[in-house]
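Per reviewer request, we include the raw input and output of the structure prediction for the construct analysed in the revised manuscript.
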Amino acid sequence: ETLIAKKLAREINLLDLLKRPEVNYASIQQLADVGPGLMDPKAAEQVEIQIKYAGYIERQQLEVERIQKNEQAPLSLELDYSLVCGLSTEIVQKLSTVKPTTLGQASRISGVTPAAISLLLVHLKKGSLKPEKCT
């Protein structure tokens, strides 16, 4: 039985090999010239998971950092939410009533959607204080 279904077109290191869905830690340990592996199967499983999902985990971490950065973005108490293009009347009413001081507070108001928070963020980055022409 072979480790991988397709012949490798180039040399590949063991980390990259383990990223392939058809390859697991145990199968790599069966290759010649591979040093001693982890004896604890749970530790080996964790290594495999971390390697296979590293790209996804990194993207999620970047998303978390972006959200945390925007969490503290200040909202003016004088902000006229009706000037923000795309917000529903219901969300404008909720934001105008609660008057959140940060984007994070706004995101925790019942009924305020992630899409509405994105619209607010775009509005804040534009620095719009006057009515916009919504298209």
